[in-house]
Amino acid sequence: MADIIKLLPDHVANQIAAGEVVQRPASVVKELLENAIDAGADSIKLIIKDGGKNLIQVIDDGIGMSPTDARMGFERHATSKIQKAEDLFRLNTKGFRGEALASIAAIAHVEVQTKPEQDEMATHLRIEGSEIKFQEVCVAPKGTSMSVKNLFFNIPARRNFLKSNQVELRHITDEFHRVAMAHPNIAFNFYNNGSELFNLPKANQRQRIVHIFGSKTNEKLVPVNEETQVVKISGFINKPEFAKRSRGEQFFFVNNRFIKSPYLHHAVLAAFEGLIKSDSYPGYFLYLDVDPASIDINIHPTKTEVKFDDEHTLYAILRSTIKHSLGQFNVVPALDFDQ
Ligand code: ADP
Ligand code: MG
Questions:
Q1: Across the chain, which distance is largest between two alpha carbons, in Å?
Q2: pLDDT (tens digit, 9 = 90+) per residue, 287-319?
Q3: 323 touches ligand 1 (CB under 6 Å)
Q4: Which residues form the DNA mismatch repair protein S5 domain (predicted)?
Q5: pTM of the model
Q6: Domain limits, the chain
């Protein structure tokens, strides 16, 4: 029989990969913010319109890209962040898969302006559905501006599946919170339909949390600090009396990356045992720093899951550290929860 297997054209492969990387506007926001952070930005602006359906723009003052890199960045598996497999064990960047820009450009209209500090002139590039429409020299400040318009313009089923602007804005805001909390040393501004939603100056962890969640948060926070050979833990837990029925203020950051971990969540719950009702959740903002060689973040394209080498030890350390913090701040069990 004749051979029938063929390699897919790049733009088709990109569109398929985009299905995993880009679920909704908030996914684009995450990828662009992370690229800005990896570029060493001090200050990042996020501008969106209509829940991100019609515009998502991220402007940074990071290292920028050369004219060639500005094109290369949109190739699949093109990255400046790793070169060989071993680099996966010493990651200190958010990105490494070299997939985000290629995926986004396959399903949206993207416009870039970028300039490295030392270059005289900037590059202006437009790419639509993986096709470069133009590239020209322009004048722009140091750093990079990426605008993503008409998300899913060529995948009607996906576009129709998007929720209301308000719901998409909520997802974007959640993503923005996570990234901003992971990087208090970077200033962030967030504008939606022309009005400023957040203006976060450079801060420490506590100030950043309070800027995002409001001044009432400050009195709720109990500091958590521990350093062992396996992990350095910092951040805050909310005092037990502020535990809520609904979830929402539970955050783990591992090496400055927001992650979800039912297992570590359970360790926190175990530390609060007897202090809160069994149907309520304590708030926490916990920053774990571990040796990059001891984790695998490459489980899913969105990188919100992480595999730890020794999660049992981590569990035990986390639980006892939080118990200790609760004890230190004289948090004692309430006799009657219903009062
Ligand atoms: P990854 O982040 O995994 O490397 P991306 O597709 O997100 O893959 O980006 C591809 C490359 O484009 C990056 O490795 C980086 O070199 C470059 N790049 C993307 N965004 C920026 C930015 N805001 N500033 C400077 N370089 C960028
Ligand atoms: Mg990236």
A1: 79
A2: 999 999 999 988 888 889 999 999 999 999 999
A3: no
A4: 209-327
A5: 0.94
A6: 10-200, 214-328
